[in-house]
Design goal:
With about 350 residues, the chain is α+β, with helices and mostly antiparallel strands. The chain is built from 12 helices and 5 strands.
């Protein structure tokens, strides 16, 4: 390879690099021009929309007002009342609770008032007043701490080490929470006190939950009988020990170290029996608490108020009607303007 070839190669590389930089520069220029054109187009579109709204401002405002008035005086725009109930589901029945509430809400939405009247033992007029059923878990830091403490108490050490408090809370789903709030809305503020019985009865249509409840009650009863029997035996044994200690105390004192050691051992056994009795009593308290909580599939913590509280309906049906009529009016005016443009449009 001669000297001319060596000189020609760097020149070719310089030409190639120069062309590459020009291509990159042109690419960026086109990109910036595109972005700039996009912003200009959006700005022009916004100006056109604002000019359109200004031109038809009075008509559009009137459509909002008329729609709001129509919504307010429509059938669904009547006075609305609400009441809440706090529920504690037992026996893993939270999922069934949510299913039941969703079912009631679907019945109300589909105007299946005859079915609602049967479920809640209401008149047809009372059933027609029911509007919505909703439910959500009650979430608080203290309840999360309580739930985590229960998790720690009933889980093995390895599992507890792997699950921190923040991870435990993060992985909670709505069915895991202890308390849940049911909210009912209706046009009749006196219907709420009649809903509790039907809501509770709906759970007893589930054979699985009923059998689970009966099995739980039987286990609690068996555990209670066994604990009472053990407590009686511990009490009898302690009485026997007391009599033995009393007889030993009335014997002549020999003063030997052996007698003192035997007396101390007997007193220790009496203390053990006393502690055993306390354990059985504590267990009975826990059994009674368990019985109170699990004798029903669900426990009502706070019932519906006899009279519902007024809800603000101004943002519901009236708002929906107003924006629907506004949208239709806007679309209609837009079509009118488009028709005018098409009439004056000429092909180039």
């Amino acid at each position: 390879m001669n000297a001319n070839d060596h000189q020609q190669k760097p020149k070719d590389e310089e030409v190639d690099l120069g062309g590459l930089f020009m291509l990159i520069g042109n690419g960026f220029k086109k990109l910036f021009n595109f972005i700039g054109g996009l912003f200009v187009s959006l700005f022009n579109f916004l100006i056109i929309v604002l000019l359109f709204i200004r031109h038809h401002f009075i008509v559009l405002i009137l459509s909002l007002i008329i729609g709001g008035v129509l919504g307010f005086y429509s059938e669904d725009g009547k006075k609305s009342y609400a009441a809440t109930m706090v529920i504690k589901p037992n026996l893993n029945s939270a999922r069934q609770l949510y299913n039941n509430v969703a079912y009631f809400n679907d019945l109300a939405a589909q105007k299946e008032f005859s079915t609602l009247s049967v479920i809640f033992n209401l008149s047809n007029e009372e059933a027609k007043s029911l509007a919505t059923f909703t439910i959500e878990p009650i979430i608080s830091y203290s309840l999360n701490v309580e739930a985590y403490n229960d998790f720690v108490r009933y889980s093995d050490t390895t599992t507890v080490k792997q699950v921190e408090f923040k991870d435990f809370v993060k992985n909670q789903i709505k069915y895991d929470y202890k308390f849940h709030e049911i909210k009912v809305e209706a046009n009749n503020n006196k219907v709420f006190s009649k809903l509790k019985a039907g809501l509770i009865a709906s759970f007893y249509n589930n054979d699985y939950l009923v059998s689970l409840k009966n099995a739980k009650a039987l286990n609690i009863e068996t555990d209670e009988k066994r604990t009472n029997k053990n407590l009686e035996q511990a009490d009898s044994l302690r009485q026997v020990y007391n009599k033995v200690l009393l007889l030993e105390a009335n014997k002549p004192f020999s003063g030997t170290n052996i007698d003192m050691a035997q007396g101390k051992d007997k007193r220790n056994k009496e203390l053990e029996l006393f502690n055993t009795q306390d354990l059985y009593r504590d267990k009975l308290i826990a059994i009674n608490n368990d019985k109170a909580e699990n004798q029903n599939i669900i426990n009502v913590v706070s019932d519906f108020n006899k009279l519902g509280t007024k809800t603000n309906v101004i943002y519901r049906k009236p708002g929906t009607y107003a924006f629907m009529l506004f949208g239709l009016t806007f679309l209609g005016l837009l079509l009118v303007e488009l028709n005018k443009y098409l009439k004056t449009y000429k092909k180039p």
